[in-house]
Design a protein that fits this description.
Keywords: Hydrolase. InterPro entries: AB_hydrolase_fold, Peptidase_S9_cat. It is globular and about 70 Å long. It is an alpha+beta fold. It has an eight-stranded mixed sheet, with helices on both faces. Strands 1-2-3-4 form a four-stranded antiparallel sheet, with no helix packed on it. Helix content is 17%, strand content 35%. The protein folds into two domains: 2-309, Methylamine Dehydrogenase, Chain H (7 Propeller); 320-572, Alpha/Beta hydrolase fold, catalytic domain (Rossmann fold, 3-Layer(aba) Sandwich).
Length: 573
């Protein structure tokens, strides 16, 4: 999502899960224009990376599923033409960027190479292909991007090409102001991912917005934009991750003043003139497009420009079920943060939910599945075990060599805290996790099965030995850093400890086309638990991958999970 130069329109990709369209909305709500309907790419979560505007606002360049990078031309506010640039259409393209003379478009190919293409004669050329990974093209005088090499990930050790990678520093979201006079980025050189602005003609010395909290999240995909310049580079908008909650701020580079603009998790920040736009969400706020009019920083005016298409999210009976979580800490050798959602009509049931990644975090965003279970009386605890992002570099990196161990220990500590302090019963507690979260849920049960009455999993990581030798193109190389030795992997693989799971009911969902965590993980778990005399129910969804899309399967997942949970609740009486 971006503000079109001039500040009168906001553009973004809208998708119903099947098709997508690049659309723009007038900031005064008066009009809507479809810019491109022929298969624009779709961003991930609150990220973008799909399109960019030329500086005059008369052309937009969009990454597409089948046509590479397409130039769409406008006259006034209407589309008058389009053409495909000469990028190789057999490759995957992301984050187009236009250099300051509007002569060259840069883009990333297959998350590996930075390419440029001359807008006038259409000749593409390779700019950088010597790094193992490349993401988020940037255009100043020449092309730039974020790069990193095996065995690291973008959030553990990376740089803004052509700068060299520095050990133990991760860089993300390098960008220029639209007038190309100012440059900045986020890095974790202070131990926390904060915004840094290089000195320029506006403010001579380098400036760092030093905070105790993170300004960015791990680079799981292209186009994350949790900070941005205004048009002339004099001000910076940025987000603060406050124990999973978030707020939006503006920093004035000239005066050094900071102004809190809004509450909620914001992404896709874009600022032109006095118009700051963002995707915004929260525990009680379904994802929406908002614009802030910043004529006066002391009195920012927020307008909701686009809401979800389904009006039922705004009906009173739904709103009653939406709750804000409290931020808690489970004591121990390491204090473990978690967020606790309490339903309005509780019956004592508790879902302890563990995020995937494992280097990730579930911030306080709108999650329809949370609303579903809260409406049915279940409390929900979301665990930030060691390795989670949002709490500084040291906390995230502390899982290295101990995945499957420290995360499970931390989850057990949270369960004990929930039961001793908040009064939840183990007989009414279920652990839930998907992917890496599934591994953590299983290993927490192995450590102390008395703390929960059941486990619900989606495509769980089970075989750490297989993960240690994974050929996954994005993060397979990272597994040895996370896991450690083959002996460690063997010891922490849940199916090797099936005897400790035999008395705990387990429900597992897995797609047979999952290439990130192949089906054999669940098959090995099923065989091991059955051999140990345990109770495991496995549901295999044909054609599904790492994340379910078929509405029939999603409905079945919820129905079977609900049946599982109420069986647990019935047995607890």
């Amino acid at each position: 999502m971006l503000v079109r130069p001039g500040g009168q329109w906001v553009s973004g990709v809208v998708s119903d899960g099947v098709s997508a369209v690049l659309r723009m909305w007038a900031v005064d709500g008066s009009d809507t224009v479809d810019l491109f309907v022929d298969g624009p790419c779709r961003g991930r979560g609150l990220s973008g990376g799909v399109h960019t505007w030329a500086d005059e606002g008369d052309c937009v360049y969009v990454s597409t599923d089948a046509r590479g990078i397409v130039e769409v031309t406008l006259r006034h506010d209407a589309v008058v033409g389009e053409r495909s640039l000469a990028f190789d259409v057999s490759r995957s393209w992301s984050t187009p960027a236009v250099e300051y003379m509007n002569r060259t478009v840069y883009a990333i190919a297959d998350w590996k190479e930075l390419w440029g293409c001359d807008i006038a004669n259409g000749e593409p050329f390779l700019v950088h292909g010597d790094s193992d990974f490349a993401l988020d093209a940037t255009a100043g005088v020449d092309g730039s991007c974020i790069v990193w090499n095996r065995p690291q990930m973008a959030w553990t050790e990376s740089a803004s090409y052509p700068e060299r990678i520095v050990s133990d520093i991760a860089v993300q979201q390098a960008r220029f102001s639209r007038n190309k006079g100012s440059f900045g980025f986020i890095d974790d050189s202070t131990g926390v991912s904060n915004v840094h602005i290089l000195g320029d003609q506006i403010v001579d010395p380098n400036i760092s917005i030093i905070d105790h909290c993170e300004h960015g999240a791990p680079t799981w995909g292209p186009g994350q934009r949790t900070w941005c310049f205004n048009t002339d580079g004099t001000r910076v908008a940025y987000t603060r991750n406050e124990d999973g909650y978030s707020s939006l701020w503006v920093f004035d580079r000239v005066t050094g003043s900071r102004h809190r603009i809004g509450q909620g998790v914001h992404g896709c920040l874009s600022w032109e003139g006095n118009t700051l736009a963002a995707l915004r969400t929260g525990a009680r706020t379904p994802q929406q497009v908002v614009v802030y009019r910043l004529n006066n920083l002391l009195e920012p005016q927020r307008t909701v420009l686009v809401r979800p298409a389904d009006s039922r999210w705004f009906e009173n009976e739904v709103d009653v079920e939406l709750v804000e979580p409290s931020v808690e800490q489970a004591p121990g050798n390491v204090e473990v943060p978690y967020r606790l959602y309490q339903p309005h009509r509780p019956h004592g049931g508790l879902i302890c939910w563990i995020h995937g990644g494992p280097n990730d975090q579930w911030q306080v965003t709108f999650r329809s599945q949370f609303t579903y279970w809260l409406s049915r009386g279940f409390a929900i605890a979301v665990v930030d075990h060691r390795g989670s992002s949002g709490h500084g570099r040291d906390f995230m990196m502390s899982l290295n060599g101990h995945w499957g161990e420290f995360d499970a220990i931390d989850t057990v500590n949270v369960l004990r805290h929930l039961q001793s302090v908040h009064g939840f019963s183990a007989a009414k507690t279920v652990l839930m996790g998907a992917s890496a979260g599934g591994l953590t849920a299983l290993n927490a049960t192995v450590l102390d099965a008395s703390l929960c009455a059941g486990v619900v999993l989606k495509y769980p990581v089970v075989d750490l030995v297989a993960m240690l030798h994974s050929d996954d193109s994005f993060e397979g190389h990272y597994m040895p850093l996370l896991i450690g030795s083959e002996i460690d992997a063997e010891k922490r693989s849940p199916h090797r400890n099936a005897h400790a799971l035999a008395n705990t009911p387990i429900l597992v969902f897995h797609g047979d086309q999952d290439h990130s965590v192949p089906l054999h993980h669940t098959e090995q778990l099923q065989d091991a638990v059955n051999d140990a005399g345990g109770n495991i129910q496995c549901e295999i969804f044909a054609g599904e991958g790492h994340g379910f899309r078929n509405p029939v399967y999603i409905t079945r997942e919820f129905a079977l999970t609900e049946e599982f949970l109420y069986s647990m609740m019935k047995n607890a009486r």
